[in-house]
Amino acid sequence: MIKSSSQIFANAKSGLGTVGGFFKFPGDPAIYGITNNHVIANANKCHKGDPVYAYGSKAQPIGTLQCWVSLDADHVNYLDIALFKVASGVDVSWLLPAGKAMPQAMEAAVNDDEVYMVLPDGSQRMGKVTDPAIDHNQAFTLCNIDFSFTGLIEIQPPDDQPFSKHGESGSLIFNSRNNIIGVLLGTNFDLSRSYAVPFVNGKTGILGTYQLIITGGPAAAPEELTV
Questions:
Q1: Residue pair 41/33 in contact by the 8 Å Cβ criterion
Q2: Tell me: the pLDDT tens digits for 56-82?
Q3: Which has more confidence, 3 or 159?
Q4: 114-171 pLDDT tens trace
Q5: What is the mean pLDDT of residues 28-52?
Q6: 104 belongs to a structural domain
Q7: Spatial distance between the Cα atoms of 137 and 127, rounded to a whole number of angstroms
Q8: What is the dihedral of CA 3, 10, 68, 162, to 10 degrees?
């Protein structure tokens, strides 16, 4: 079993991150977990079919890297996402607030909207959208390489504690209607703001690249995994 908000990794170079949630592609019965390129694709230094593991266990992969948006150190980026195909026999489920089986929709971020992220223990960390699509370039160091991003959702915590921390990259961000708005990328230098890749933002959002459908339940497509 792998739940949304569970910590995952591909190898020591990529580091630790989070599987945000589970999706399908139209016409494809397989289930895919979403996270960041820098979590399971090692900033492009990867191969399709590379194994992905649940944190705390490297005995059996939970899936294999399927697709990712390449990161470009020489130009501004909009997306830091990757999808892994959940292995046959690995069940998936959503870890959400009480009464919610799985998210119902993906929406655009709205300024001043209250948002939250679900932690591995099921608790939520709250924040507020301070910019639904930044128009400046925000720098991040990912897999020891410097990258610049724009068009991200900017999130402010309600107090002096960071909204997100190391190892939480790839987490989904939900709005006050419990719908998905983005995938967490990281924080700024002083940890006062966090940034997420938007699902809905014209051609530069995730849905402008991948036509994803929210799903849950056991993986349907058989797959052989090799390490």
A1: no
A2: 766 689 999 999 999 999 999 999 999
A3: 3
A4: 999 999 999 999 999 999 999 999 999 999 999 999 999 999 998 888 999 989 999 9
A5: 96
A6: no
A7: 22
A8: 60
Same domain, residue pair 6 and 77: yes
Q: Which CATH number goes with the domain that contains 127?
A: 2.40.10.10
Mean pLDDT, the chain, rounded, equals 92
| Nearest Cα to Cα of residue 94 among 5, 221, 170 | 5
**Residue range(s) defining the domain that contains residue 6:** 2-94+208-214
The overall pTM is greater than 0.90: yes
Amino acid at residue number 187: T
- Total domains, the chain: 2
Q: Other C-beta atoms within 10 Å of 157: how many?
A: 18
CB 164 within 8 A of CB 184: yes
> Which stretch of 7-11, 40-44, 75-79, 147-151 has the lowest confidence by average pLDDT?
7-11
Residue type (1 letter), 218: P
Residues 7 and 84 in one domain: yes
Q: Tokens in use for 196? A: 């997420």
**What is the C-alpha separation between 6 and 171, in angstroms, rounded?**
9
Let me know if residue 41 belongs to a domain: yes
